[in-house]
Amino acid sequence: MSVQSPFIRIGSRSSAMAAWAMLALLVPCSIYSALYDSTFVWRLIGYALLGMMAETVYTLIVKRKRRLVCMGSGFTAALIAASVPPTMPFLPMLFSILIAVWIVKLPMVGSPLRFNAAMVGRLFLMLVYPAQTVNWGTPTVDVISTATPQELYRSEGFPLEWSEWLFSKIDGTWEGLFLLVPGSPGETFPLLILLLGGLLCWKGIIGWRIPLFFLLSFSITSAVFGNSLLFNLLSAAILFSAVFIVADPVSTPMSKSGQMICGLIIGISNALIREFTFYTEAIVYAVLLGNLCAPLLDHLAFEVRGKQLQRRMRQSARD
Amino acid sequence: MLRTIKIDWKIPADFRTLETPFPRPERIYSGIDEIDPKTFPAFLDEIGLIGMGGGGFPASEKLWANRHSHTLVINGVECEPGSSIDKSVLLNDSLWVAAGAAACAKVVGATKVILAVQHNPEFVAEVNKLYSEFEILSFPDKYPAGAEKLILKRLTGKCPPPGSRPYEFGFLIQNVVSLRAVGRAIVDGIPVVERPLTLAMPSTGFYKNIIVPVGISVSELLDLYKLPYDSGIHLISDSGIMMGKEISKSSTIEKTTISIFILKRDVAFREERPCTRCGVCNTACPLGLHPFTLTEKIRKGKTGGNAFKGQMSECFLCGVCSAVCPSGIPLVQTLEKGKQCL
Description:
- Chain A is mainly alpha-helical.
- Chain A is built from 14 helices and no strands.
- Chain A has two domains: 14-129 and 172-190, no CATH class; 206-319, no CATH class.
- Chain B has three domains: 40-188, NADH-ubiquinone oxidoreductase 51kDa subunit (Rossmann fold, 3-Layer(aba) Sandwich), CATH 3.40.50.11540; 194-268, Roll (Ubiquitin-like (UB roll)), CATH 3.10.20.90; 280-339, no CATH class.
- Helix content of chain B is 35%, strand content 15%.
- Chain B contains 14 helices and nine strands.
- Chain B has helices at 40-47, 59-65, 85-92, 94-108, 121-130, 148-156, 176-188, 218-225, 265-268, 280-284, 291-300, 306-314, 320-324, 331-339; strands spanning 71-76, 112-118, 135-139, 171-175, 194-201, 206-213, 234-238, 245-247, 259-264.
- The longest helix of chain B is centred in the N-terminal third of the chain and has 15 residues, at 94-108.
- Chain B is globular, with a radius of gyration of 20 Å.
- Chains A and B meet through α1 and α14 of A and α9, α10, α12 and α13 of B.
């Protein structure tokens, strides 16, 4: 057992990072489950186990190694399950998990360009099973309608003042149906998610740069187009994706400046897509666009920093 | 960004004590009274002084290169977690440190002496009493605050360019232990034959600041304090947890040995996993470099670019990137290899 300096470890280890994120994700999901759909959390855990099994099979076949606990893939699967309506049938979920784990997540390990596996899985669902993906239920009181009803809001006009979104229960058509903000299971409790995001940042699991710049640029761009800022920020998947999807350390740039710019790109493009296209919620496309830029941003950050240091070196040589 | 590095040792570093378990060396020549800038570097060579903060650079050459400095900085910022020998020397051997500092300041013509210490209220209060003639500058208790480059950054207000030395800015930065050795030679006429160091074995709660003769072996030290060392379970780390290297029981104490830590092997062991590209090394780097991109380039042999050279020469191998890596990748070892590509 050879040991090299430094003889100390700081912060979390990579094996535990996904487990912490998974625990954080389970908090809003289990509250949702307790309130509206008691079987949902068990299905979520089942999907996570499915994702883990998919990774185990992959490592067994491709790398000829046995690994039983594969939290990363489990977390990916759980993210997919938490970001689509709970009415999603099993077969599409299975397909999307397999695509996310076998095609996107595992073969791309170590390459500079990586995509957020959960988002690719969700993209697959959106493209192949569009009807189930937007099946938010009908807005009547005897149906528990779930997941982002952005489309309905758009057609009806925004029914609420922003202060009501923050501090009171939702009235009107949605009365009694939702605790705070309607949405897919993961994104129902925005303030709770924000709190969890802070906790994850403090534990060092996610960085604060991408989420912060994402939220800032998103809200500024929305405000420029004259939309209600807090409505856009608190409704739909913005906070959920800021904490669990955009902050994903694997598929976003490694450099600090790269992370900031990536956050800006995702936020601005998301607001633009919301404003100008018929998509009401386009976090998938925005995140994948940000992932595409990641290698370029990393390369640029490295070159710029190196050139800066070189210039300083030459200056001091001249003096 | 500087990092606070916590260690889970039961007995914290006690900087008030400094023990001398071995017999003190005897005076072999009379001390000097008059300090002549022309002959002083030769005197330093005669007593065999090298940079005792770990650098090991010959002190006479450093002093000669610094002969037009306006400020002498006493570097007592000891950021290696767990070691407190600089503090201990500052408090216990203040006479020698002050004498050495005065001599060095006179030789280089420095008009101002700054004492850089780690921020610790009790310690700073005591230092204020002992060194009232010096200006005291306190640094955060974080790693690697004591690096020459970062002290210089604090003093000049901007980060010094890669490859530059403090004398280009008119600063002479000397380690506390080096100054103690100078003072010892001037006042008592004893050359550099002793080395203050921190000896610690956290698993048994043993922690001491001691002065040992240069050249004795580590096993003699272990026998003296009857430390239960087993090469299968423990490892001996020379000069700190962060930048130290593993040495064997038969190695000797050098002039540059800051500390001897006997650590448990399984605590220090890291299993290397594939990189998840989380970027923690980038965020942790105190100089804002890109350690992982650098190591990737070194592994692929793409070491020609200007950007690579600029970043590589800035790095001073502090080891923070290795310590924070969640996947246990030995980044700092690869960067050491990269230093040779320059």
